[in-house]
Write a structure and sequence with these properties.
Layout (H helix, E strand, L loop, with lengths): L3 H9 L3 H22 L3 H18 L9 H20 L23 H5 L3 H9 L3 H12 L4 H8 L3 H31 L1
Length: 189
């Protein structure tokens, strides 16, 4: 198995085996990223394909000062964001602003509840969020963007990003609590 730098060099020489190896090495993780941003696998398939086309088109710009995986991940996230922006009617969400970040310490979900939910169940719950909430949640919580960056990416205000994150967290909290109550009721029977 080639090291990342050698793999990139071989791909740049149009070595199809190296290109296939690069795809196989990163496709599974990148597919997981794509799934976080859309509701349906067919959309994730499209994003993954578009993302890897961009990866191969731009591989000549990869500088080995960072990880190849991180560079590819950034392309996948940007491809997912572009997909979202193209396929979503942007609306003025300024009216959605409520007290951003209002989720206080006392409202946090007990860690015991979360420990009983699998990763897949949690991703399923996140996927149930409305598109805007899901995008903001993923970008902020999982990908580490700040609200200013999210606002620029999604063409919304910084306050709208904060509001949507707050609402996403509240909705997730309610869904997780409801799911844990159902599990508790089920276990008592």
């Amino acid at each position: 198995m080639l090291k990342d730098e050698d793999l990139v060099n071989e791909c740049l020489k149009n070595n199809t085996k190296a290109q296939e190896q690069l795809y196989k090495r990163f496709a599974s993780k990148m597919y997981g990223i794509c799934l976080r941003f859309v509701r349906y696998r067919i959309e994730a398939d499209d994003i993954l394909q578009d993302g890897f086309v961009k990866v191969f088109e731009n591989l000549k710009y990869f500088r080995a000062d960072g990880s190849l995986e991180g560079w590819i991940k950034r392309i996948m996230v940007n491809t997912a964001i572009n997909y979202y922006n193209k396929n979503t009617v942007q609306q003025d969400n300024e009216t959605d602003i409520d007290s951003p970040g209002s989720m206080g310490q006392n409202e946090l979900i007990d860690e015991n509840i979360i420990s009983h939910i699998s990763r897949n169940e949690l991703l399923e719950i996140i996927n149930e969020l409305a598109d805007g909430y899901r995008m903001v949640f993923n970008l902020y919580v999982i990908d580490g963007y700040n609200h200013k960056e999210i606002g620029e990416i999604m063409n919304i205000s910084e306050n709208t990003s904060k509001s949507q994150l707050s609402r996403a967290r509240k909705i997730l909290q309610e869904k997780i609590l409801k799911r844990s109550e159902i599990l508790a009721d089920y276990k008592t029977y």
